[in-house]
Write a structure and sequence with these properties.
Layout lengths: L2 H16 L3 H10 L5 H13 L3 H14 L4 H13 L3 H15 L4 E3 L8 E3 H14 L3 H13 L6 H12 L19 H5 L13 E2 L8 E2 L18 H4 L4 E5 L18 E7 L4 E6 L2 E6 L3 E3 L37 H12 L1 E7 L3 E7 L4 H12 L6 E4 L14 H7 L3 E8 L13 E4 L18 E7 L4 E6 L2 E6 L3 E3 L6
Helix pairs in contact: 1-2, 2-3, 3-4, 4-5, 5-6, 6-7, 7-8, 8-9
C-alpha cells in the first residue's frame, strides 16, 4: 500500500470517528496494510473503548515497537493492564511512560496530530493507584509525593484527593485518556490528496476557413499573411495576479499560513518580505514560501531560462549562539575540544522563577555562593539581597549551610529554583525599551529559549549576536532567533 493510500484511509477513519461512527473508523484502521505507530495507537484506543482488552494490548504493543519513545502509548497500555487487573505490569508501563517524559512536566502531542497533553503528575497518580491495588501503600504514597513535584495548578486538586485516600488506605479513581481523541494525519498532506484537473476536458474543433480540411483536438492559429516577430503572451498568464516564479526545491509547510510546493510548480508572487518569505498564489490558494526556493519565470511561449540556485535555507532557526562558559579560546585543538566536551557534560541548567522566568547554567557541584553570584549577576542586584528556595511552597530558604551535594545528586542536569530579591532587578523590562513583534511562532526547545506565537510583542533586553536576541514576553525571559521578529513602529508601541 502506498503512502497516499495509507494517508487517505487514515483521514477517512478519523472522519468517521468525528461522526461518532467508531465501528466504521475501526474497520478502516484495521484494513490499513502497514500501519505506523500512530495508527496502531488509534486502533488500541478504539479497542479499549470497546472493552476488547486483548486486542487493545496487542495494538499498543505494535505502537511501542514502532516508536519506543511514545510515552502516551506506554500510558494507554498501562491502563489496559490496569483494567485486566495485571497491576504489576501496569506499574511497569507507567514507569516507562514517566521515563519517556524525560523529566518534563508534560508532553503536548498537538504538533504530532494528537490534541492531548500527557502530564507527569497524572502518570504518577495512576502508578500510585496500581500500587495501592497491590497493597503497596508506602510506595503509592511516595509516587503521589513525587507527583506533587510535577503538579500544575489545574492538576493539584486531584493529587491532593488521591493522597487523602492513600493515607486512609483506600483506592481512588484513575485518570483516563479520552479514547475518542485520535492521532490525525498531517493536514497539509491531506490537502494535497484532492485530485486536480490541470488540462480540462478536450473539445473537438474545426477550421472556419473553407479551404482548410483540418479537424482535431487543438485550436487552430488564426491565419495571417505575416507571422508576428515574437510569440504573443498567453492571455491566461497575462491575466494572473503577481509575478510568475518556478519552484526549484520541495517545501514542506510547518504552519497553517505556509504553502506546500514541489519542484516544477509555477507560483505567482504577490509580495516579497524583508524576511525572505514570499506571499504566493498556487492552485487558487495563498500562502508563504521561502523566496530563495523560487526562480523568476519568463512569461512567454519562448524557451524557459534556467538558472542555477544555491542550496535553499532550512526552516529551522539559525545556528544557536555559543554560550560563554569560561572558554575564551576559539581554536579547534584536540585539548580544547576535550575541555569543552568535559565542561558541557558537567553543566547544569538552572531555571529560575522570579518576577519573570529565566535560565542560567553552571557546573554541577558548585557551591551555594557561586550559584547566588551567578543569579545576582543575571538580575544585576547584590548577592546579599537574593533569596533562593527549592520549591514554591518551601518554608525555609537556601543558605551557606544548605547541603549542596544532595541538591546536585538529585538535579545534576536541570534544577528549578524560586527566587526573591529585596532590590528591584535592573533587567526587568521597562516601557521605554525597544518592542518587537513576532513574524512567526517560535517553539522553545531549551530552558534558556523564549517561546512565542505569531503576533506576540516582545521587549528587547539585549542583542546576543547578529542571529539571536534576548527579550521578555508573557512573563518569561529568554533568547530567540532575530529573523523571527521585527521592530514594532513607535506609534504601534
Amino acid at each position: 500500500m502506498s503512502f497516499l493510500d495509507t494517508l487517505r484511509q487514515w483521514d477517512d477513519a478519523v472522519t468517521c470517528a468525528d461522526r461518532n461512527d467508531l465501528a466504521e473508523a475501526l474497520r478502516i484502521f484495521l484494513a490499513i496494510q502497514e500501519p505506523n505507530s500512530k495508527i496502531y495507537f488509534n486502533i488500541g484506543c478504539l479497542q479499549l473503548l470497546n472493552q476488547n482488552l486483548d486486542a487493545a494490548e496487542k495494538a499498543f504493543d505494535c505502537s511501542i515497537c514502532k516508536d519506543e519513545h511514545l510515552a502516551v502509548a506506554f500510558f494507554q497500555r498501562g491502563m489496559t493492564f490496569y483494567q485486566k487487573k495485571r497491576y504489576d505490569e501496569s506499574v511497569g508501563d507507567f514507569q516507562l511512560a514517566l521515563k519517556a517524559l524525560r523529566g518534563n512536566q508534560l508532553i503536548d502531542y498537538k504538533v504530532l496530530g494528537l490534541r492531548y497533553k500527557l502530564y507527569a503528575c497524572e502518570v504518577l497518580h495512576n502508578m500510585a493507584l496500581a500500587e495501592a491495588h497491590l497493597g503497596q501503600w508506602e510506595k503509592a504514597q511516595k509516587s503521589l509525593s513525587k507527583a506533587l513535584e510535577y503538579k500544575t495548578d489545574a492538576k493539584l486538586n486531584i493529587i491532593n484527593k488521591a493522597m487523602e485516600s492513600i493515607l486512609r488506605q483506600k483506592v481512588f479513581k484513575a485518570v483516563e485518556f479520552p479514547s475518542t481523541v485520535l492521532f490525525r494525519p498531517n493536514k497539509h498532506y491531506v490537502a494535497e490528496l484532492e485530485k486536480k484537473d490541470y488540462l480540462g476536458k478536450a473539445k473537438v474543433v474545426a477550421s472556419v476557413v473553407p479551404q482548410d480540411q483540418f479537424s482535431g483536438f487543438a485550436p487552430l492559429q488564426p491565419q495571417v499573411e505575416q507571422e508576428p516577430s515574437s510569440p504573443k503572451e498567453p492571455e491566461v498568464l497575462r491575466a494572473l495576479e503577481g509575478d510568475a516564479h518556478i519552484v526549484r526545491y520541495e517545501f514542506i509547510p510547518e504552519t497553517s499560513d505556509e504553502l506546500a510546493v514541489v519542484p516544477g510548480n509555477i507560483v505567482f508572487v504577490l509580495q516579497k518580505g524583508s524576511d525572505n518569505w514570499a506571499s504566493v498564489i498556487f492552485n487558487g490558494r495563498k500562502g508563504l514560501v521561502p523566496y530563495n526556493y523560487l526562480e523568476p519565470l519568463e512569461m512567454s511561449l519562448g524557451t524557459q531560462q534556467k538558472n542555477e540556485l544555491s542550496e535553499p535555507p532550512s526552516r529551522v532557526p539559525p545556528t544557536r549562539p555559543e554560550r560563554n562558559q569560561g572558554l575564551v579560546r576559539d581554536d579547534t585543538s584536540t585539548e580544547d575540544l576535550q575541555q569543552k566536551e568535559k565542561l558541557a557534560d558537567n553543566l547544569c541548567v538552572v531555571k529560575v522563577h522570579y518576577a519573570f522566568n529565566f535560565a542560567v547554567s553552571l557546573e554541577s557541584g558548585s557551591t551555594y555562593k557561586t550559584l547566588v553570584e551567578k543569579i545576582s549577576r543575571k538580575l544585576n542586584v547584590s548577592p546579599m539581597s537574593v533569596t533562593l528556595r527549592l520549591s514554591s511552597d518551601a518554608t525555609s530558604a537556601m543558605n551557606d549551610d544548605t547541603d549542596m551535594e544532595s541538591v546536585w545528586s538529585v538535579h545534576s542536569k536541570r534544577l528549578k529554583l524560586w527566587c526573591n530579591s529585596k532590590e528591584e532587578s535592573a533587567v526587568k523590562p521597562q516601557n521605554n525599551e525597544t518592542v518587537l513583534v513576532a513574524l512567526h511562532p517560535y517553539v522553545s526547545t531549551n530552558p534558556e529559549d523564549l517561546g512565542f506565537n505569531q503576533g506576540d510583542k516582545i521587549t528587547l533586553i539585549s542583542k546576543i549576536n547578529q542571529d539571536w536576541l534576548e527579550g521578555h514576553s508573557n512573563g518569561n525571559t529568554g533568547i530567540f532567533p532575530a529573523s523571527f521578529v521585527e521592530e514594532l513602529p513607535v506609534n504601534d508601541q
